[in-house]
User: What shape does this take?
Amino acid sequence: MRYAMAVDTKKCVGCSDCVVACQTENDVPIGYCRDWIVEVTDGTYPQLELEHRSERCNHCENSPCVRCCPTGASHYSDGGIVLVTKNKCIGCGACIASCPYDARFTHPKGYVDKCTFCIHRVKKGQEPACVAVCPTKCMYFGDLDDPNSDVSKVIKKRKYKTLIPEAGTQPQLYFLI
Amino acid sequence: MREELIVSGRMNPHIDPQLEIWEWHIPAYLFLGGLAAGILFFASYFFIKGKSDEYPTAVKLAPIFTPLLIGLGLVFLFLDLKHKLYFWRLYTAFKIESPMSWGAWTLMAIMPLSGIWAALNIKTLFPKWDWKFDVVKDAIKVLEDYKTPIAWAMMILSVILGIYTGILLSAFNARPLWNTSILGPLFLVSGMSTGAAAIIILSKSKAERHTFARIDLLLIAIELFLIIHMFMGFRASSQVQIDASAMFLGGQFTAVFWVLVVGFGLLIPAALEVMEMRNKKVPYMVAPALVLFGGLLFRFIMAYAGQMSRWLY
Assistant: This one.
């Protein structure tokens, strides 16, 4: 099993609904976020191109955060999801410094927090909160090993990119272009 | 033209607008760790060579301070932790790929060894020292017989401690400025140079000071080579490392790095050490004090600048 997510940059309008849904679903403390929207403007007027990306932890297959964690708190879980065990985390910040996507932060309670792909929902057969609320249905989630999952189907059909693949992280967040 | 903005207003503390997860604690610890590693290396090396009487400061006096240096460093490390009550989790796991895990275990091993070494030599600093309890006296007597194996263990562990402070940073490929394998050797050499400087400051014998000034000169030369080599590597590397090195080659760290770290921390002490060895009248404290200052500042600059350097996408 290999969980992954695809975000259609042609459909995303940057409404930030995914960000709010995540904050609500996961009780993210005020002032923090586990996902965010990046808006890229390319070119000069009048030749402009706009891209919106809903970004979060890339649940990398070769995660620098798992590698550098001194206690094993950061680990690979079912389906390759990268999770943090709260009572193993010492809050040293090594994983935060190691993440090229800046996807992690220190929870006010001291441990490191990040996107979990809403594993608690996925286990119940639901979609992650961000995917479920998206008003333009621009996000796809599922198992890459299953050729019939939403994400497998869409990345077979469309062109996509990943973020900084040259960092060697093998990210599992696909941006459809 | 390309403009990238986080439009959902991400402002995670210590991450945005720019990474600052490690503040003064980490560079201060890296300095103390390197300094202790340097002192312990010289202590064990010259003990094994049988030169305890020739270099009493290096072998006996200076190492007395190392448990304090390492202890203070550990306090800083503890202060840096955000989930403090779980710090013991470091010692329920050994992660072979994590330099921080290596460091934690190395500290666990070298801290007691340096304490034993200090206890064995405490009478150099306090001639009237009395251990009071017979148990301690007996233990000290037993340990006296194991000085050589302790010195060997200390020498190996001090090199690991010194080099790991650099490897810790170089293992982060997310921060291009740190992501160079030169950083391990560079921090090791710099740590040994600060160790030699501390020995010079503490030493009362001119001959010992001159020996360590000569050692320090060699270390400074290696350091300069490694620094230049590091920037050559950056310049010839990928765009992110070219950008990272640009902070030091025209960017905001240029003046403070080349004037204070390289100038005052390496070149001026080197010149002063040469003058002193030629018996010119120079106050001998100045050069080692500058070396210590340069070593401390170098770690602060690397820690902060490294967190500023990043991948672009």
Remarks:
- Chain B has a mean pLDDT of 95.
